[in-house]
UniProtKB/TrEMBL annotation:
Protein name as annotated: Acyltransferase domain-containing protein
Region (Disordered): 44-75, 882-923
Keyword Acyltransferase part of the UniProt annotation: yes
GO biological process, one term: fatty acid biosynthetic process
GO molecular function annotations of the record: 3-oxoacyl-[acyl-carrier-protein] synthase activity; fatty acid synthase activity; phosphopantetheine binding
Record-annotated Ketosynthase family 3 (KS3) domain positions: 4-433
Keyword Transferase: yes
Native source species: Streptomyces luteolifulvus
UniProt xrefs under InterPro entries: Ac_transferase_dom_sf (IPR001227), ACP-like_sf (IPR036736), Acyl_transferase_dom (IPR014043), Acyl_Trfase/lysoPLipase (IPR016035), Ketoacyl_synth_AS (IPR018201), Ketoacyl_synth_C (IPR014031), Ketoacyl_synth_N (IPR014030), Malonyl_transacylase_ACP-bd (IPR016036)
The entry's keywords: Acyltransferase, Antibiotic biosynthesis, Phosphopantetheine, Phosphoprotein, Transferase
Length: 1018
């Protein structure tokens, strides 16, 4: 590591006036639009605090009436009160008490991390740093001066430090976490600290942010009284019309990494921070006035440490507030460095001309502009460039305002950004274009695109957003975009996966999935414990020409394992089973090759899934499927299994083809009387309560078939060459037993459900020579074995084979209330799509498993590409007017009818208590009472709180809320006595757990007695 290692900007998100995200921000800048507007009514009554300009031009600003401002305009972001508290596990009542800046930072941080092609959960537990520049804390002024309303929530919902700490807490980031207030330079100072932390190896990722919200007219009044406020509410930097500051707000987050790390991970890079620096004005001509010499020294120092001179700088994003003094001093300081430049002029601009001075977010607003300019290789024009202030002599200083966009040349280009604080804290940064990286993808590679969200409604919105974005992407990026979605968009509980071999199909299927999103099932999230996966291996009869060819083409891992097992089979079969299968050779349907072929594809499928992290804890095999099951369980070596299945198939193939198999819709006990006196018939398989297979002599089987047809019993002839698992197989049993004699006799490493015994292997039971010999003629007792498997609590069963045969059987064997998920590795029909492995991985993921997606993609396709970030729910709203203390009002968060409002004063905790209980008293059941109290403490909509919801993760119950819930329960159920907090915490995983705990404490199940008044619920 070099001392001054470059730092990459790998992700960003922002909201500024007139721009809801980075894309709209760039459009605003390139179009040169004005983002200012009249003060929204939500903020304050602009007319009430506005005084017209003095009648006499000679009047000074001191003549303006106290408590009044000179403007009714500014730069305001849309919907600052909107938030998605449930997404972050924050209770509505807590969210309503939080400074909206904290809410904005949380959502902006999540989106910026996704923009960096990372899943935010991937950073959980890492030493990721959070550095937030913040200047305003007006929410605290509005709430903490109303002493009667103050609760613990307001304490944790306010304070500069919480801006950073909220992000670190809710995203579980363990690196440095701090808020910085150096006035207007706060956010660029935060970037400087983040850069130094990365260089010092305190963290490997850093979030550098800035935020500003205008909630009261206080600063407007101060600017007006100090003569700093522009009457039209607009900053006009370096313009002859410059007459002061126009205030603005916004929020932005950058994700930073060491450049070497980002390039090693092939992460897309917007731009590179080559050097940053900070200093202080010291004693100058006033604490609020800028110091030319300090600015000049800082800029010169940063350029020198970056190894650059003015000749290397192509454009400067200036502080540029539009005050006469500030513009003049900044032009002087820059001009001392650029005036002797050998090339053309340095482009000069300030984003404040577009929407105003964002104060705590001003520095990062300019930095994001510079980053995007380098990324797009275009510098946006400067508003008011047509009216340049001649007194600044910009041309003489080799500086120029851009009247139109400036296209940057190829190669490395450098830019600089300045931000100066009102108290004298200055910050400066030098950036460069990102190093060029070309990552070519395979043009025809398929992929599976994943989208996840917290709710079905959000899933639909995010599916549509992704579809719209993908419709504008290059066709050859399909696999890379899919791989990125697997990496970034796959951690939330409501899920949709779409496999496709081309982008137009993917876009269409994503839109179709959006229409079905309302029916999406929430992934369990571990409530039932860790997933327990079983592999079920299909028996003979499932084979078909070119089976699993799509797996071989589109899953490198499967192809590798099939090649390996084919090499082990070839000495015993005399041919390449792999080639016969992939070529669709009819010879592969004969028993001598069909059995090795089925074993080969099952072995390769199971090995590929296991390599992808879908590892079974138990296996079950139907007939020939037991051999691949035994290999997967560690009971057979692959080489031994290959020899045995090849020999088994060859022996059976030599038997006369004088038998058949018949599936009948009767129980085994109903079939057995039909076999009396027919010694060449037998029960071959019991697949369900009314699903039995008879096998044996063709003539005797035909007689049984005729008899059952007359009784109108459901019948189906199986397309097989021999009567497997029937008395006709007895001639090969002893020879096969001898073939198995030297096979290692060892216990399986996984639980094996034997379809010979109809149960799980127990104790010292092994799959020895006697077992494999007996397996040839014994009935396949699948129903009993599968029933035992399902009864043992398996959560997922994956059928391994070329056609879905066992999956429907398992569905019929499930007991009522059994939520086991069954999936199959093959397409239901014989003609599988070219991307069946991708489909299966998507289905596994939607079912709650976590496959290793990388196994589906070649190295060239594992390149991250930026996707649109998450679209949050904005239905929750909470705000408080800052018009005047006597008019201050708290608005409740907007939630559906039936929810308790966290802002309606009532009873003990005034501003935060929920409405009192109905006059009829409390519910008369423990479950209903617990549900009601949980909703009241958290401020949740009762219709959206369910028994399986986790109080901490889903409902936001931290220690403060747990203590409040404890007190409410004790008041509502006095017969319980004091509830030990340690007992409560131990039983607080879900709402249902808490209900069970309370019921257990109530003697004889006594119903809770309603207190005399509704105040008892606090």
């Amino acid at each position: 590591m070099t001392e001054r290692e470059p730092i990459a900007v790998v992700g960003l998100d922002c909201r500024f006036p007139g721009a809801r995200d980075a894309q709209e921000y760039w459009s605003l800048l390139m179009d040169g639009r004005d983002g200012t507007e009249r003060v929204p009514e939500q903020r304050w009554d602009a007319d009430r605090y506005h005084a017209p300009p003095p009648a006499s031009p000679q009047s000074t600003h001191e003549a303006r009436p106290p408590g009044r401002t000179n403007t009714v305009r500014g730069g305001f972001i849309a919907d600052p009160d909107a938030f998605d508290p449930a997404f972050f596990g924050i209770a509505p009542r807590e969210a309503a008490a939080m400074d909206p800046q904290q809410r904005l930072l949380l959502q902006c941080s999540w989106r910026a991390i996704e923009d960096a092609t990372l899943a935010p959960q991937e950073l959980a537990g890492t030493e990721t740093g959070v550095f937030v520049g913040v200047m305003a804390n007006e929410w605290a002024y509005l709430h903490l001066t109303d002493y009667d309303r103050i609760t613990a929530r307001y304490g944790s919902g306010n304070g500069y430090f919480m801006g950073a700490n909220r992000v670190s807490y809710h995203l579980d980031l363990r690196g440095p976490s701090l808020a910085v207030d150096t006035a207007c330079s706060s956010s660029l100072v935060a970037v400087h600290l983040a850069v130094n932390s990365l260089r010092a190896r305190e963290c490997d990722h850093a979030l550098a942010a800035g935020t500003n919200l205008i909630m009261t007219p206080v600063i407007n009044i101060f600017y007006a009284q100090a003569g700093l406020s522009a009457p039209d509410g607009r900053c006009k930097p370096f313009s002859a019309a410059a007459d002061g500051i126009g205030r603005a707000e916004g929020v932005a987050v950058l994700v930073l990494r060491r450049l070497s790390d980002a390039l090693a991970d092939r992460q897309p890079v917007y731009a590179v921070l080559q050097e940053t620096g900070i200093n202080q004005d010291g004693r100058s001509n006033g604490i609020t006035a800028p110091n030319r010499w300090a600015q000049q020294q800082l800029i010169e120092s940063v350029w020198r440490r970056a190894g650059l001179t003015a000749d290397d700088i192509r454009f400067v994003e200036a502080h540029g507030t539009g005050t006469l003094l500030g513009d003049f001093i900044e032009a002087q300081a820059l001009g001392e460095l650029t005036g002797g430049r050998s090339g053309g002029s340095v482009a000069l601009g300030s984003v404040k001309s577009n929407f105003g001075h964002a104060e705590g977010a001003a520095g990062i607003a300019g930095l994001v502009k510079a980053v995007l300019a380098l990324h797009h290789r275009t510098v946006p024009p400067s508003r008011f460039a047509d009216d340049e202030n001649p007194k600044l002599d910009l041309a003489g200083r080799r500086l120029s305002l851009l009247k139109s966009p400036l296209r940057l040349p190829s190669g490395t280009v450098h830019a600089a950004v300045s931000s100066f604080g009102m108290g004298g804290s200055n910050a400066h940064a030098v950036l460069a274009t990102a190093p060029r990286a070309v990552h070519r993808s395979r043009h025809t590679a398929p992929g599976v695109f994943t989208v996840s969200a917290r709710t079905p409604e959000r899933l639909r919105a995010n599916l549509l957003a992704q579809a719209d974005a993908l419709s504008r992407r290059p066709e050859n990026q399909l696999a890379q975009l899919c791989w990125t979605s697997n990496r970034v968009k796959s951690r939330l509980p409501h899920r949709a996966a779409v496999a496709a071999a081309d982008l137009p199909t993917l876009v269409a299927e994503l839109r179709a999935a959006a229409e079905r999103a309302g029916a999406s099932r929430k992934v369990d999230g571990g409530r039932r414990g860790a997933p327990s996966v079983a592999f079920a291996f299909t028996g003979q009869g499932a084979q078909h020409p070119r089976m699993t060819a799509s797996w071989y083409r589109s899953c490198p891992s499967y192809a590798r394992h099939l090649d390996e097992i084919d090499q082990l089979l070839a000495p015993h079969t005399g041919v390449s089973v792999r080639d016969l299968v992939l070529d669709g050779d009819a010879e592969a349907d004969r028993a001598r090759l069909a059995q090795p072929a089925l074993f080969a594809v099952q072995y390769a499928m199971a090995a590929a899934l296991d390599e992808a992290g879908i590892s079974p804890s138990s296996v079950i095999g139907h007939s020939i499927g037991e051999f691949a099951a035994a290999c997967t369980a560690g009971a057979l070596d692959a080489a031994d299994a290959a020899r045995l299945v090849a020999r088994r198939g060859a022996l059976m193939d030599k038997l006369p083809e004088d038998g058949g198999m018949l599936a009948v819709g009767l129980a085994a006990t109903e079939v057995e009387p039909l076999l009396s006196g027919r010694e060449r018939l037998g029960v071959a398989a019991v697949n369900g309560p009314h699903a039995t297979v008879i096998a044996g002599d063709a003539d005797q089987l035909a007689a049984v078939e005729k008899e059952l047809a007359e009784r109108e019993v459901s019948l189906r002839r199986l397309s097989v060459s021999h009567a497997f698992h029937s008395p006709l197989m007895r001639p090969v049993v002893e020879e096969f037993r001898r073939e198995c004699a030297d096979v290692s006799d060892r216990r399986p490493a996984l639980q094996v459900y034997s379809t010979v015994y109809g149960r799980a292997l127990t104790g010292e039971e092994t799959l020895d020579a006697a077992y494999w010999a007996r397996q040839i003629t014994e009935p396949v007792r699948f129903a009993e074995a599968a029933g035992a498997l399902l009864a043992d609590g398996v959560t997922h069963v994956v059928e391994i084979g070329p056609r879905a045969v066992l999956t429907p059987l398992l569905a019929r064997l499930r007991a009522d209330g059994d939520h086991t998920v069954s999936l199959h590795s093959a397409h239901p029909g014989e003609h599988a799509p070219a991307h069946r492995p991708q489909q299966l991985f998507g289905e596994l993921w939607c079912a709650g498993l976590t496959p290793d997606w990388s196994l589906l993609y070649a190295e060239a396709d594992r390149v991250p590409r930026r996707l649109p970030p998450y679209l949050f729910d904005d239905s929750f709203r909470s705000w408080r007017s800052g018009g005047a203390p006597e008019r201050a009002e708290a608005s409740a968060p907007t939630v559906p009818p039936g929810a308790d409002s966290p802002a309606v004063p009532s009873g003990a905790d005034r501003g935060e208590s929920c409405p009192p209980a109905p006059a009829a008293g409390l519910p008369d059941s423990v479950a209903a009472l617990t549900h009601q109290l949980v909703c009241r403490v958290g401020g949740h909509d009762p219709q959206r709180v369910h028994d399986h919801d986790r109080l901490h993760e889903d409902l936001g119950f931290d220690s403060i809320r747990v203590m409040e819930l404890k007190t409410r329960i004790e008041d509502a159920l006095p017969q319980l006595g004091p509830l030990p907090i340690e007992d409560l915490l131990a039983n607080l995983r879900t709402v249902a757990d808490l209900v069970g705990h309370l019921r257990g404490r109530l003697a004889d199940g006594a119903a809770p007695a309603a207190p005399a008044t509704s105040e008892g619920t606090r």
